[in-house]
Amino acid sequence: MPIKTSNKIFVVLAALSWISLLALNLYTIYASSNNIPFYISDPLINLLLSLFFCFVFLYFKIELAKKRSSNFIELLWQVFIIGSSTILVSLFIKFFLFLIDQSELAENIILVNFLYHLNIGLITIFLGNAFYVWKKMILYQKSRLTNISWYIFEYLVYASILLNFFYFDITDWRFYIYTSPLTILGLMLSFNVKWVAFLNYKQKWQSILLIVLVILISSTFLQEIIERHITSSLIIDLADNIFIIAVFAFILLNCFTSLLVLLFHLPTSSVFEQKFGEVMIFQKLNQSIQMGEKEEEVYEILIESSVNTVMADAAWLEIVNEKGNFKAFINKNINEIDIFEIKKVLRKNSININNEPHYIKNIKNYNYSERIKDLSFKSILIVPLFSNDQLLGTMVLLKNLNDGFDKEMVDIIFTFVSQASLAIKNFRLISEAIENERYKEELKIAKEVQRSLFPESLIFNIHVEMSAFSKAADEVGGDYYDVYEYSNEKLAVVIGDVSGNGTSAAFNMAQMKGVFQSLIQLDIPSDQFMNYANKALSRCLEKRSFITLSLFLVDIAKKTFQFARAGHCPPLYFNNATKETYYLQSKGLGLGIIRNKDYSKHIEKIDCSYSSGDVMILFTDGIVEACNESNEEFGFERLKNLLFLNSHLNTKQISDKIVEDLYAFTGTKNLNDDYTFLVIKFI
Amino acid sequence: MKLTSDKDSNYYVISIEGDVDASSCIMLDKAIAEAVSKGENKILIDCTHLNYISSAGLGVFMSYIQDFESNNISLVLFNLSAKVKNVFQILGLDELIKIVSSKEEAKALIG
Question: How far apart are CA A614 and CA A636, in angstroms?
């Protein structure tokens, strides 16, 4: 701790120099009265005195630099406490001198000089402390110029200590020219009283009191110095010391300017405090936004601050939600019944409180005001809260005075309201964003769940090669495909499409999966499967929903397949033997379209045989209905040609080719419907 | 999508213009429900300008089939484009809903 150590050193050094000065002093007197030759006294005394001044001042310089600069009352208190304790000791000395006034002791030059020497110490401590306290005050919110002026001044003050070594006649006019820079700078600096503006009303009165007391203390010290100067014969006379007089003058000058400025500021301090309060309220409103507190707290801060700032007698605040419905209500010093009556009067005078701001100087002059004649309210300020033309609510302030709101008050309320509106809007946007994030999260889960509904892997069968592609337009979709392997020789493939898309389709798709997985176990013909499926789905699909489905039962041993098509897009078939590509036509109604009648006459099963190299594409309508920019559909023909040209490829390659052509055709990867297809190749 | 409803002697004609998709099918449903609530029992749907119908749109027609049958209300779609007609055919709705090529044919069909 270098600062602390150096500070202690200054105390020790100051004490040492003071004691040696005292000793030298007394010895000089003793020597002169006893005619002992002693020559070195004068320069040595001056040196020790100068050192003492320096050490005391340096101690306070370091000590006060450690203090926080903004607590002015505490600083002034410090001046007062040190001042009053030093002056008390000084007065006690004076009292002692008074007691011995008539005695022989009063004539004892050694005693008088010893007591005066105590006074020198006391005065130096008082001055050192006061000097550096004023430094703090003067340099509060300093400009560069003030800073520089202060340091020049401080060095000049220290330099004036050197004047101890010379004799000056203070009645000589030249003396004033030499000391004029010190005077001018001191005067200039004494007008830096910015700190006064930061005191509140009470603190200003405290400051005035403390400064008056400091002036009293200083004057008492000065009076003592002058009195001693006249009455006593002294070795060291502070009255001749430029340094001490300059510091005294500087402190008194500052006391007087501060006192004047304080007195001038007193009447305006309430305004300053009010403005300061407003700033604090803004800060509070802003903080409540940033601190992530609740929207409700903004209401409280708004109404509380408004009522306090304009000194309203009562107020209420109505808040509505995004849909314009009631959300919150806060009332202050007024009950709901009275509010209801006031609103009725306003309504009858066709004043809409949710429309625009209104200022009513005296409601008692309005029509129908006899309803509220028992209420003491007169002036009413109505301010709606808006954010981007959206009404958030309305605040109403009431005063018992006629025309109780002046322009400044109205302005400040407007600013409060707009600030609060912003805060409320922010809270709502944040909660909306959180809500959206939550929905997104839910949809992600739904997507995961749906993904798990598709078969994990397509059957690996050396006789049948299969590839699948499925992509939903939204997070979840209504397309469905599945496979079921009875044995190495027999398998079932299904593709389906639920009407509509998005979440509702996804739910129905899940039901379809259940229906398929249960019915397929029965190992029944495909038309009968559809019949059962229709029955099952009729019970669980909502009125306007239906499902289209194609089911293929493949018999690898016999090289045949049986299929039924319930309203689904007809499968595309490539016949390797004839090199023909065609759609497999059949009669079949979608599932869930007729629910209470016999579905069986609307479905048929088709039996086919296949040969090696035949390719089949099962797809949903999203593929053929995919549109390009000019609203042209991908269509059945394009798909047919695609297969015809690529039938020699393996299923994965064909699948990739379809996806590639499809995206190239639409020119975008944004789907407007779910895309699903299966490519099956018989080996 | 745009819908216009007209009264042609004792036929109630709803003309569809544009696309019937998941969002606009609600309007179509409303228009048909309105006709039913007015007590109309000969409803013709003019599909001359019907460009596209999604599965949700088909769902609207589908939902009325059994109601109309039991309440003796006739519904006929006329003048469908080949593309739109194909959509009805794939789903098998052409077996349940009367689809003809012109308004005159539609009138003649239900008398």
Answer: 19
